[in-house]
Structure formats: C-alpha cells, structure tokens
C-alpha cells in the first residue's frame, strides 16, 4: 500500500510537470538549423585536418633538411670523383704516350696528346731562344756594352 502511494505521487509529479509547448517550427528555421549543423561539422573536420597538418609540418621540414644535406654530400662526392677521374685520365694519357709504341697514330687521334706534343715543341723552342739570348748577352758584355742601360730602355718601352 505504501508502495502504491509513493508511485502515485511520482506519477502525478511526472504528469504535473509542464511539457514544453510544441510550437510548430518553420521549415526555413529547420533548414537553417540543418545548414548550420552541417557547416559546424565541416568546420570541425577542417580544424582537425589543420591540426594534423600542423603536426606533420615539423617532421616534413626535418626530412627535407636531411635530404638537402644528403644531396649536398652526394654532390661533393660526385665532384671529388669527377676530379679524380680526370686526374687519372690525364695520368693515363701521359703514361700511355710514353710507353705506347703506336703513339704517333694515337697522337693524331687524341687531341689531348697532340696538345702535349705541341707544348713540348714550344718548350724546346723556348729553351733554344734562351740559349741564344745568353750567348748574345755574353758577346755584348764582351764588347763592353752597358747592359743595365739597355735593359732599362727596353723595360721603359714596355
């Protein structure tokens, strides 16, 4: 009996609570509410994606910096290898020209060896000219000519 009494009190209170009046909502208001909810969801998705991107940017920057450093190291290595290969090729050309019995044939085919031969010829010509100049200076000095004045005159003309 006490249970029935208590339950009737609660039922009455529930029944007595005023229910909010159900006002008919406009279709426009409903559409606006749906649109605002959709916009809010889109904004939240965009904000989440922005946060993800902000978290990824420092890692990407570190990766890019590491790659730049590695690329520069590779460039340096390639430059050193290129220089070493050129040096080895020059050494090979010089040695092969000295040892090779067919160097006359190779001299015609290889521009580098022809340049070396030309430089050798010019060097020999310079040696001959220097020897002639020395002999001329000895002869001139033997006649008592003042070489210092001649040298100053030549340098003044240049």
From TrEMBL:
It is found in: Archaeal flagellum. SUPFAM superfamilies: Bacterial hemolysins. Pfam families: FlaC_arch. Residues 1-39 are annotated as: Disordered. Residues 25-34 have a biased composition (Acidic residues). InterPro entries: FlaC_arc, Flagella_assembly_related. GO terms for cellular component: archaeal-type flagellum. Keywords: Archaeal flagellum, Cell projection, Cilium, Flagellum. This is Flagellar protein FlaC. The lineage of its organism: Archaea, Methanobacteriati, Methanobacteriota, Thermococci, Thermococcales.
């Amino acid at each position: 009996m006490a249970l029935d009494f208590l339950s009737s009190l609660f039922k009455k209170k529930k029944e007595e609570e005023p229910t909010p009046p159900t006002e008919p909502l406009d279709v426009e208001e409903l559409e606006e509410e749906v649109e605002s909810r959709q916009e809010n969801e889109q904004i939240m998705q965009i904000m989440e994606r922005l946060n993800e991107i902000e978290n990824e940017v420092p890692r990407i920057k570190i990766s890019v910096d590491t790659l730049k450093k590695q690329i520069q190291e590779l460039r340096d290595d390639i430059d050193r290898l290129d220089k070493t290969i050129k040096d080895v090729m020059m050494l090979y050309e010089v040695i092969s020209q000295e040892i090779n019995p067919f160097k006359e044939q190779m001299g015609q085919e290889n521009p580098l060896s022809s340049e070396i031969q030309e430089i050798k010829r010019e060097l020999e010509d310079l040696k001959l000219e220097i020897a002639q100049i020395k002999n001329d200076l000895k002869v001139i000095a033997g006649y008592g000519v003042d070489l210092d004045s001649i040298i100053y005159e030549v340098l003044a003309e240049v």
